[in-house]
Amino acid sequence: MKYPYWLCALTLVVAMQASASIRQAPEPELRDLMQRTVAEAGSFQDRFDAEVWLLDMSTRLKRFMPDAGERLTLLRLVHQEASKAGLKPEWVLALIHAESHFDRFAISSVGAQGMMQVMPFWKAELGRPQDNLTDNATNLRYGCTILSYYLKKENGDINRALARYNGSLGKPHYPAKVLGFWQDFWYVRP
């Protein structure tokens, strides 16, 4: 359902005023950063959806990434790449939570790299040896594409798709961990 822009803006202003009595008003730099991030977030249906999702997820992500600019940039990328791949952005956040705890320089014991722990052999498979898997945009593009492929291969079964992503098909531990993070930290009620 589409709401007129003025109604959304009014609702947001009233909500911000009500919450201002509970917490301190955001710093002007953060407000400016949020406005720029929303303006660049083309994967959302409308500006209001972008503002609500980005603010909600930024608050949840703060414990892992204290820098607001870094958080908002990552969230915009997550939403963009997940949407492009037909995935729920919150699933991608849960997977990143499980794989790297939002450490873009994470390297696993088997050599997987970046936030989504992508195996470097994919660069050779794609003929793109120059790609940097610790670059969040690159890592998210690879990881979301891989997860989307496995989700389609498994006919929408997220448990099996996650197990394939992790290389642990037939073992329930990894999908349970990711979906646990999704339910406990990243789930958004409709």
Task: Tell me the name of the CATH class.
Answer: Mainly Alpha
Distance between the termini: 13 Å
Sketch the major β-sheet: none
Structural class label: mainly alpha
Q: Into how many domains do the coordinates divide?
A: 1
The rounded Rg comes to 18 Å
Strand composition percent: under 5%
Q: pLDDT below 50 for ≥5 consecutive residues: which ranges?
A: 5-24
Remind me, CATH topology? Answer: Lysozyme
Broad shape: globular
* CATH-level-2 architecture: Orthogonal Bundle
DSSP helix fraction: 55-70%
Please provide the count of β strands. 0
The helix/strand series, from N terminus to C terminus, equals HHHHHHHHH
Number of helices: 9
Query: What's the mean pLDDT score?
Result: 85
Characterise this structure.
The chain has 190 residues and is mainly α. It has one domain (27-186): Lysozyme. The chain has nine helices and no strands. It has helices at 5-20, 28-40, 47-61, 68-85, 89-100, 121-125, 136-153, 158-166, 173-186. Helix 4 (68-85) runs parallel beside helix 7 and helix 8 crosses helix 9 (173-186). The longest helix has 18 residues, at 68-85.
Layout of strands and helices, then pairs:
Elements: H1 5-20, H2 28-40, H3 47-61, H4 68-85, H5 89-100, H6 121-125, H7 136-153, H8 158-166, H9 173-186
Signal peptide: 1-20
Protein name: Lytic transglycosylase domain-containing protein
Keywords: Signal
